[in-house]
Predict the 3D structure of the following.
Amino acid sequence: MTNTPEAKTGMTRSVMVVGAATLSSRVTGLMRDVVLAWIIGTSVQADAFFAAFRLPNFLRRIFAEGSLSTAFVPVFTELNVTRGPKEAFRLGSNVLSILVPLLVAVSGAGVLLAPQIVAVMTPGWLGDQEKFSLTVTLARWMFPYILLISVAAMAMGMLNAQGHFAAPAFAPVLLNVAMICSGIIAGLTMDKPVLGIAWGVLLGGIAQIAIQALPLWRRGFRPKICLDLKDPHLKKVGRLLVPSLFGSTVYQVNMLVITILASLLPSGSLSYLFYADRLMEFPLGVFAVSVGTVALPAMSAHAARKDMKNLQATLSFAFRQVSLIMVPATVGLIVLREQLMEVVFQRGQFDPQATRLSAQALLCYSVGLWFVAQLRVIGPFFYALQDTKTPMVAATSSLVINVLLAMVLMDPLSHAGLALALSGSAAFQLAILLARIKSKLGMIPWRDLFKNFEKILVASCVMGAICFFGPGLLGWKDGIPFLLKATGLLALVLSGASIYVAILGLLKVDDLRVFLDSVRRLDRAKRKGVAEEERNSTPTKKGWEI
């Protein structure tokens, strides 16, 4: 499909379908984090849970959402475009036949070796027997989650390549609901409610597989043992997997470094970083991840057809759409960091000191929000071209920068220095990937990538000024009722967003018109009852491809 306004609107509309499902996931995720803050706050149980949950998450993002998806989806999409769904699904069964036994072994090893793994991840807790033992227990309970979420990620990749985004994007809601319900029940009935929350993680993993099974079945997928090691497409996935695995591992090692260093800081540091990360992940997950999810199969389809012109157009458009949302989100999080922390988390075991210290981490995380968001677009560009080596080199370089910055900044800035180091390494990684675009396209499309950026920046600064002075004008101070604070913050956010949109309209930012036009078309499509047809469209139809 050519790079027409209708095609751009179609892609944006699909991003919004994913974004709507992801928004429900992020809202329930925020509710989950509120429950966690209420029940365990920044206590010993909280630090232990967040460290233990990072263990399966570490492997999940390496095997499932990281290297496996980026190696599998381009090859699956190529097969789906050139040979049809039957051959593509055969590859899916082949990969699952290898993946499941492998991850059963990994999960078993994680359960058996949990004490040694926890000792490596949190060396600062070796002198605190209660904290260390609790972390080991939680790690053992949650390690099998890696198997469940990896199977769910495979289902997500196959559905996305078929043009179905809603069910995979909605699946994390079930994890959040399971953790919320288990957390409330455990908080009311158990001395150590964190154990009940760990059980909820496993229930949520099972539910994420279940919700994607039906749409996969309807599209013709019949899982079976199909171990064909001579399959050339399986070999291609393997060739892409090795450097991608290394690249994903490097990024997760970044997070592991943060965990290790946070264990050497005062108690609660890891929890402050977790809650700050949850607020930063809200805009990142709702929009940037949605753009990356839609862009990867779209760019993979262009790459399969050797259509470099529209591949570049899709990259540039996705990059600009991320800037349209992430620049004002960055400004808003920086300016309203303490108010957001107070309204969202400050209750129960989460006290004003936890609010202040978590807000410091949020400030430093927010500095890197735009860079992290754009990595979700630039990375899929290389993966679509089946180039996993370039992201690997960039990720390795960013790891070195992260470690150096963290060691320098953690002394003067404590936990906030670790967050700032992660932001700095993300900026460095993005710079490397942008520079490498030239080797693929023959040039770096700076004008297309940063079109309207200065207008977005101006509008965001005006919005930021309003948000900065707003709390004072609203009489924000300690002691006023929570409902008044929450209402005032919501009014301030909505007012800032409205002014931002109005300024972009006055400055005639065309990407905004595409975004708003997609909202109107999506609304009309829903009223006409054709939303399901659009969700089920294939990558070659006018649903989301440019």
User: Anything to note?
Assistant: The chain has a mean pLDDT of 83. The chain is about 85% helix and 0% strand. The radius of gyration is 23 Å. Residues 1-40+268-457 form one domain.
